[in-house]
Amino acid sequence: MTRGILIAGNESVLLSAIEAEAAKRTESYVFAPIINRFPGAAPQPSPKGEGSPLETHPTADSPARILLDWNPSSPISARTLILAAENRLERISDAILVCHSPQVRKDAADLSFADVEMLVNDHIKGWFFIVKELTAVFKARGEGTLALVYPDINETTGEDETPDLLGHSALAVFRSLTRNLLAAAFSEPFLTLGFTGSETGDDAGFAAFIFKQLEEKNRRGNGKLHKYGKLGFFK
Q1: pLDDT tens profile 149-196
Q2: How far is CA 187 from CA 146, 179, 190, 191, in A?
């Protein structure tokens, strides 16, 4: 894989691991993170346990990274992002969308209007808008790979701990979107692959597994949800 990779997703260790893997395999890639704006939300920890994963990761200053800003709540911004990525890369051959929403532990009755707006605008709308733009490009070209990535989380909540409400809501929507796209994959001229992994702490291994499948371009994997588990990978 020499070029044409777009990576978009939630600020997280998983996103950083996928970016690091891309940096090993291509001279340039477009990186479009969704920054966590929830006040008081539990951030996804960095590998060093300090700071934002996007700030502390070695790829932050990589010459291969083409950092593009976008507003997930705007369909115009999604279109502008795809056009800008195509201009910088010449073409998008592989688009990797990573949903790893921040944990927001609040009771439903305590949610503010701003909380709900940020959930919908930053962590739900954007996926539909960017998928719409990417599939239009891939359909017109007759090729491309759309990869949708999310963690397989089974939350355990302590007796005195409030369950994560907003993060799990966003993840549920992305999971449903992924299943819909995988079901329609065989009628499309491009490949659609889903990836999920259990919380093993092996984000680097999960990222390498994703890129292995992308590079194989195996149509037998089209429309499938590929799973990566603690004891290794399996499909």
Answers
A1: 998 876 555 555 677 777 888 999 999 999 999 999 999 999 999 999
A2: 14, 14, 9, 10
Task: Tell me how far the alpha carbon of residue 195 is from its chain's centroid.
Answer: 10
C-alpha 157/C-alpha 176 separation (Å) is 24
Would you call 173 helix, strand, or coil by DSSP? helix
The domain total for the chain is 1
CATH code of 33's domain: 3.40.50.720
Local structure of residue 226 (DSSP, 8 states): E
Smallest Cα–Cα separation from 223: which of 151, 110, 147?
Answer: 147
pTM: 0.87
Rounded to 10 degrees, what is the CA torsion of 196, 200, 204, 208? -40
Are residues 138 and 187 in contact, defined by beta-carbon separation less than 8 angstroms? no
Return the closest-CA partner of residue 104 out of 90, 93, 118.
Answer: 118
> Which residues span the domain enclosing 24?
5-234
pLDDT (tens digit per residue) in 83-111: 999 999 999 999 999 999 877 777 888 88
